[in-house]
Specification:
By secondary structure, the protein is an alpha+beta fold. It has 10 helices and 17 strands. A hairpin with a 6-residue loop joins strand 5 and strand 6. Helix 4 packs parallel to helix 5. It starts with a helix and ends with a strand. One of its GO terms (cellular component) is cytosol. One of its GO terms (molecular function) is metallopeptidase activity. InterPro entries: Metalloprtase-TldD/E_C, Metalloprtase-TldD/E_cen_dom, Metalloprtase-TldD/E_N, PmbA, TldD/PmbA_N, TldD/PmbA_sf.
């Protein structure tokens, strides 16, 4: 047994949180609650930041929280505390009950159905503590920044490098007798640099993130890639306004999936604030297009056996053969819509967008002439109409190769039309998110430039 395993008391801490949750549920029932649920969490972390070879911040965190929700029939009350003293826990339950007694009935309120609770809890390989001291974390950040600053003489300044490492323990329990315990780690290292001088300066960077130390790219490699990306943006041009193919690089392509998720989420649907109302069963994408949710994927950034309601998760299609298969629902939003929960209380888990094409270079050759987007700015997306208009920067492509950097552009369209116009999804997946996709090529969008 190594020193890390020997000193790891996470299971004992989880057990303590589980015991607390059980005591709170018993107390809620004694105070008259017909149903109750408790969430207990404990997070620890270390973050450091450096800039121009000097340490800027070192922060060690340790947070915990206890949240109690009780139901008196269809009346709901919630209260929370960070204090584990018995008197504080008792007061928290009492406060939640007092709130519930004074709220209005909500027909959709209540726990998820008991028969939907998770019964199996496989090891999803999400726990990989990295016990670095502050000095070691600082050395990593400094090495990353130094590699970036030294990579190219055109790098003129640094916005700094940062390293973060965190551990999260959580317990969700409810009065159905369900209790689920999870532990997860996450580590990250990134750098932002500035190239050029005066009005010709450009900023870019790179970062790496993962559940385990081994998932991170080496510090020097992150630094060099940050420098390459920054220098590549020097001397940008504009382009003539017109309609062109637009290729979203993988790191920004996932935002398109994010807009889809927002439109098919339960809260947007029951508020009638979505451009995809009543769209299940409709073909929104080309016939080859597919998105699959894989919550039980080992070592996934958002893997879990149960959602925030305790409902068992399962692999399932969100989009198949271009057709929207389902919405994204927790138990509350499902009841509001008269539907069944999809096990997505708290969000989605590990979405994978199926590829139908090869590398980024192959996509560029296939596109021929158009815009490669590597950065998006602004929030110009209307969730009710699907109208899309965002600032963009990236590279102009001629004859299937990158010709020059561009910025100061606006790309516009309508998301429903953009989804239908997707021509390709590349195979080079950006793994730094729970939305895993390669570059996405939209066949035609309006690009507004300065020419």
């Amino acid at each position: 047994m190594n020193d890390i395993a020997r000193n790891d008391d996470s299971l004992q801490r989880l057990e303590r949180l589980a015991e607390i949750s059980q005591r709170l549920l018993v107390r809620a029932r004694a105070l008259g609650a017909s149903q109750a649920e408790v969430t207990c969490s404990e997070d620890t972390g270390l973050t450091v930041s450096v800039r121009k070879g000097e340490v800027e911040t070192v922060e060690s965190t340790r947070d915990r929280g206890i949240a109690v929700t009780v139901y008196f029939g269809r009346r709901k009350g919630s209260a929370s505390t960070a204090d584990l003293q018995e008197a504080s826990l008792e007061a928290t339950v009492e406060q939640a009950c007092a709130i519930a007694r004074h709220t209005e009935d909500d027909p959709a309120a209540g726990l998820a159905d008991a028969e939907l609770m998770a019964r199996e809890f496989p090891d999803l390989d999400t726990w990989h503590p990295w016990h670095l001291g502050p000095d070691e974390a600082i050395d990593l950040a400094l090495a990353c920044e130094a590699a970036g600053r030294e990579a190219d003489p055109r790098i003129s300044n640094s916005d700094g490098a940062s390293f973060g490492s965190g551990e999260s323990l959580s317990v969700y329990a409810n009065s159905h007798g369900f209790i689920g315990c999870e532990r997860e780690t996450q580590h990250s290292l990134g750098l932002a640099l500035i190239a050029g001088h005066g009005e010709d300066m450009q900023r870019d960077g790179w970062y790496s993130i993962g559940l385990a130390q081994a998932d991170l790219e080496p510090a020097a490699a992150i630094g060099r890639r940050a420098a390459e990306r920054t220098v590549a943006r020097l001397q940008p041009r504009s382009v003539a306004t017109g309609e062109y193919p637009v290729l979203f690089a993988a790191e920004v392509a996932r935002s398109l999936v994010g807009h889809l998720l927002g439109a098919v989420s339960g809260s947007a649907l029951y508020r009638r604030a979505s451009f995809l109302l009543d769209s299940v069963g409709q073909r929104l994408f080309p016939e080859w297009f597919a998105i699959r949710e894989r919550p039980l994927m080992p070592h996934g950034l958002r893997s879990t056996a149960f959602d925030a309601d305790g409902v068992a998760t399962r692999d399932s299609a969100l989009v198949e053969d271009g057709v929207l298969q389902r919405y994204v629902l927790g138990s509350y939003s499902a009841r509001r819509l008269g539907l069944q929960t999809t096990g997505n209380a708290g969000g989605v888990h590990n979405l994978e967008v199926a590829a139908n094409a090869g590398s980024l270079d192959e996509l560029l050759r296939g596109m021929g002439r158009g815009l490669l987007v590597t950065e998006l700015m602004g929030q110009g997306v209307n969730p009710v109409t699907g109208d899309y208009s965002r600032g963009a920067a990236g590279f102009w492509v001629e004859d299937g190769t990158i010709a020059y950097p561009v910025d100061g552009l606006t790309i516009a369209g309508n998301l429903r039309a953009m989804f239908a116009a997707i021509e390709a999804v590349g195979s080079e997946v950006d793994v730094r998110s729970h939305i895993r996709t390669g570059p996405i090529l939209v066949g035609r969008m309006t690009v507004a430039g300065g020419e």
